[in-house]
Amino acid sequence: MNYHQLDKDLIWHPYTQEKNATENIVINRGEGAYVIDENGRRLFDACSSWWTNTHGHAHPYLAEKLYQQAKELEHVIFAGYTHKPAIELASKLKTYLPENQQKFFFSDNGSTAVETALKMAFQFWFNQGEKRTKIIALENAYHGDTFGSMSISSRGLFTDPFKPLLFDIITIPIQEQFNQDFFDSFLKEHTEIAAFIYEPLVQGAAGINIYSATWLDEVLQIFKQNNILLIADEVMTGFGRTGKMFASDYMNTKPDIMCFSKGLTAGMLPLGLTSATQKIYDAFYNDDKTKTFFHGHSFTGNPLGCAVALASLELFELENTLTKIEMIENSHQQFSTKLARHTKVFNIQQQGTILRFEVKTEQGTSYLNELKASIIRYYLGNNLMIRPLGNVVYFMPPYCSSADDLEKLYQSSEAFLDSI
Questions:
Q1: Which among 65, 103, 254, 262 is annotated as catalytic?
Q2: 34, 65, 198, 233: which one is catalytic?
Q3: For position 228, what pLDDT does the model report?
Q4: What is the mean pLDDT of residues 28-56?
Q5: Is there a catalytic annotation at residue 96?
Q6: Residue range 28-48: average pLDDT?
Q7: C-alpha to C-alpha distance for 298 and 129, rounded to whole angstroms
Q8: Residue 44: phi, psi to the nearest 5?
Q9: Is 142 assigned a catalytic role?
Q10: Residue 47 pLDDT more than 90?
Q11: How far is it between the farthest Cα atoms of the chain?
Q12: Domain of 372, in residue numbers
């Protein structure tokens, strides 16, 4: 069977201009920090397969837990029924989250976790008879590809075809230092604000833009003081990516709602989760049935996804994962110092297991920068799988990566920069 031809004939790939796309590589299996293609070539997964993989591919502990659950219950309607994997996952995850996170709503991916959060926030005020219909978001934000999540994301390349169909939001710029006068004026000008949504510390699709926890904490404080709900989109930053279990752990002011996916199941299965405070939940808990949260998904609370997510949390303890994260963090920091001496690199940023830098080109920083294809091709020639955002190169490896894996990644990066 010619899988390459069938792929070309049948499959429509995401974020891909199919007309001039290179032939897709057929991946047959995964093993730890590597994926293996149809020819047996081992590729180091330096992007954790779109930021999802945490403990490594085909982890035997996760696979065994999935197998055990599949033999017992693969799925069941989640309205009027429940099951142990969802209950145990919520109980376990709660121990890692801020104390105010008390209730958990299941969905199936990052975008739907965000959609759930938005609807919670809007209806929270609606149920109390308050007209609050505005959302604040950060400039250059990305929160997903469904219509609600697109509406609260940056207008541009990803959203232009749908611009007339998106609801309006209010955006604020990320600043180096907190400006009290700016926010005093801002809050006087804008009323009817339901919530502020943010990617804590790291804006993903914006180019892995890392920003100040101190500034964000002060922003959260002033919004909290003005009775604005706080929604932390931890879809990418959660489960150790930033050095702590959650990026929200770097701030003193805690969110009212949190969104999770990607690393939630260590990349093994699709699952989304939105947590909320008791106060949020209580606004829906009423004898008036019209105040019900009429929201859900066919695969809400899928037992297989819940079982894997629970197993992933167990691995953080069983394999001392935070120590592995610290090793990657220290390694990235050392390489950042080397990168800073390179004349073809600028805007180097590092946070936890995330390292990003930009390559100087005449086209400037752009998702459509033509250097992207050359970057992918060069790293692939060195058996390294990355997916740059235009001329922005980033590394976000699985936590099981070894020092040798990282050293090869760094050496190849220096060789690439020397070659252009």
A1: 262
A2: 233
A3: 98
A4: 98
A5: no
A6: 98
A7: 30
A8: -75, 120
A9: yes
A10: yes
A11: 68
A12: 322-392+413-420
